[in-house]
Amino acid sequence: MQVTETLNSGLKRELKVTVPAKDLEARLEQRLDDAKGKVNLKGFRPGKVPAQHLRRVYGKSLMAEVVNEILSDTQKLLSDRGEKPAMQPEISMTEDEKEAEKVLAGQADFEFSMSYEVIPPIELKDFSDIKITRLVYSVPDDEVDEQVKRVADSARTYEVKKGKAAEGDKVKLDYLGKIGGEPFDGGAAEDSEVVIGFNQFIAGFEEQLVGLKAGDETTIKVTFPEEYAAEHLAGKEAEFDIKVKEVSKPNDLEINDETAKMLGLESAEKLREIVRGQLENQFGQVTRQKAKRQILDALDEAYKFEAPSRLVEAEFGNIWSQVTRDLETAGRSFEDEDTTEEEAREEYQRLAERRVRLGLVLSEIGEKAAVQVSDEEMQRALIESIRRYPAHQQQEIYEFYRQNPQATANIRAPLFEEKVIDHLLAEISVTDKNVSRDELMADDDEEAEAKPAKKEKPAAKKKAAPKKAAAKKEEGDA
């Protein structure tokens, strides 16, 4: 095999590979010899098929296998060159049928070219220079008690009353939601039960039920939050036609062992323990995400190198399709988000480059630290992923993952990344800072705006990005 480098520019490489016809012939002879004792042809005893007859019958198909084997060995070729391709190399070969026939007949050299980008060498730096402040929120007892009451309220009984609804009452009602006078999907229900003050509905909805009584009909006006999960409703003004059917007052509820048993737990103490654990886990995840963001920002500053363009293009494509899909679903445009398509493309292009660079850096860190994702961890993550689908689809989804290495790699990647972050947390300088709930839950953008900009680099006002875009999710940053 003769390999000639025809392009070496930045990260881009191109190789011309020539496999002489005599080498192809040698490989074919080996395959014919291996096949001699295995094939059964009419008129010949096993192992007694003449070589020329075997070549006539199977020569072309076996040579095709030889060619495919050579193409499959390109990874070894690059490994021998000490190169790591960023993506699967692009292979080009003759499209001329006559030339291809000559190759398969062993009458011509097999030539093809490979174009690819290499992963740049990354020299890891001393992690002890990285310093972050980890925001920690200690959940107070009164917040645990408040949440326990909310959980226990599912066991509370209500008694129908006459008169007007008040805070804490349960209201049974029919409603029909409209935007611009037209009903919208998911905006209607009958015999819906709303406990005033539980904040289960859109802000402003429950408050307008106060003072209503059975038989009343009215219209409630609300505005959906900008970050509402159903993006076609986000930020929209809506009206709900309401018909009150029943008003009930809550009976007294004492948090005791009997109440806990109604919830399937052995004691009130166990109920508080579980609720505290859930709250601490919830806020702990926010703490970790903010610490991770600081680590990624520090790595982004420390490692500046050219990222493979094909990886960046692929990442940008993923981000852009998510952004445009979210805008379409929400019925909004870039102008509605105080930006333009050109500006948004530039912003998400930068994000794609950042993600690719950070992904490569984290991969290098993990490789040097011998970070491993165990089979057990993969199995748990796979099961968790499959459980998100309806039961009748789960076996099909399992088979899909089992037969598609790339899909499995997509499950492994976030597990690997989190383990690398764990490794870094043990290597860098971490200072814990106790903060209030509001400080912990504040958006990163809000925190940045609260800090004075450096004089030498005044911060320009950043255009708003499309809501719920993939770029908003820090867990996808690397």
Automatic annotation (TrEMBL):
Catalyses which reaction(s): [protein]-peptidylproline (omega=180) = [protein]-peptidylproline (omega=0)
Residue ranges with Basic residues bias: 460-470
Extent of Basic and acidic residues compositional bias: 449-459
InterPro entries: PPIase_dom_sf, PPIase_FKBP_dom, Trig_fac, Trigger_fac_C, Trigger_fac_C_sf, Trigger_fac_ribosome-bd_bac, Trigger_fac_ribosome-bd_sf, Trigger_fact/SurA_dom_sf
EC number: 5.2.1.8
Compartment annotation: Cytoplasm
One Gene Ontology term of the molecular function aspect: ribosome binding
UniProt keyword annotation of Isomerase present: yes
Keyword Metal-binding: no
Keyword terms: Cell cycle, Cell division, Chaperone, Cytoplasm, Isomerase, Rotamase
Cellular component, GO annotation: cytoplasm
Enzyme class: isomerase
Record function comment: Involved in protein export. Acts as a chaperone by maintaining the newly synthesized protein in an open conformation. Functions as a peptidyl-prolyl cis-trans isomerase.
Homology family: Belongs to the FKBP-type PPIase family. Tig subfamily.
Entry note about domains: Consists of 3 domains; the N-terminus binds the ribosome, the middle domain has PPIase activity, while the C-terminus has intrinsic chaperone activity on its own.
UniProt name for this protein: Trigger factor
Gene behind the chain: tig
